[in-house]
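Q: Hi! First time doing this. I have a protein sequence and I read that you can turn it into a structure. Is that right? Here it is:
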Amino acid sequence: MYNYENLLIELFGQDYAINESLVYSLQFSHLRTGGQSKASKSALSRDLSDLVGFVEKYRSSLIDDEYNSHEYSVKLIQIPKISNTNRGDAAIEFVRWDILSAEDKAAYEQIIVLVKDKKVKVEGANVSRLKPQEVVDSINKKFAGFKVDTNLHAVLYKLFQIRPPYKSEDPFDTNTKYCLYDEPHGDYVYLQEWVEFVIHYLQSSSLQPPQLRQRLKDQQYLSCSDFE
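A: Yes, that's right. Below is the predicted 3D structure, encoded as C-alpha cells:
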C-alpha cells in the first residue's frame, strides 16, 4: 500500500495521495496531518495494551486440565534412551501423555516432577513509573554532588529532549526508553533508566546547574546516545 501511494505521488503529484480517500484506511496513508498521526499513536498505544492484557489474563485463567492439554500447548521432557538390543531404534521417541495408562503416568512422574507456579496477575497502572518528584528524590539519594530539584530536572529532560514540549500536538513523541506519556492523566511518567542516566551524566559532566540552564537557554541540546 505504501509503494502504491508513493507511485501515485511520483506520477501525478501529492494531490492524488490516498490519505483523504474513503476507500482506504488512513493508517496506510503516506501523507498524514498532525491530528491523524496523533490519533494513530493514541489508538495504537491503547490497542497494544489491551491485546497484551487480554493474552495474559486468558493464559492465567485456564484451568490445569486445559493448560496441560496437548491441544493448548506441548511440553517436552528429554530423557536419554539407552538401547543395546536394536541399532535401528529411532533416536527420538515421542510419548503422548494423554494416551498413557495410569501406571505409565505414575512411572513418568517418578522420573521427573514438574512444579508450575500459576499466578493470576492483576494489571496495575503505571507500575515502576516515576513522577518528577520521585525522579528527583531517587537522583539525590545516589548523586553526591549538588542537589537536584524539579526545576533542574525539567532543564535536563528538555536538554536531552526525551519528551515533547508542554501542550505539544503529539504528546506521544517521547524517548520511550526514559519517558512515557500517561494519556489518562495527561502528563508524563519516567522510568528508572532515566534516573540512572541522569546520575551517570551528572557524575561524568563538569557542568553546574547555572551552566545547564544557560545551555538550555541557548538551545544547545544534548543527545542521549552520546552519554549512554
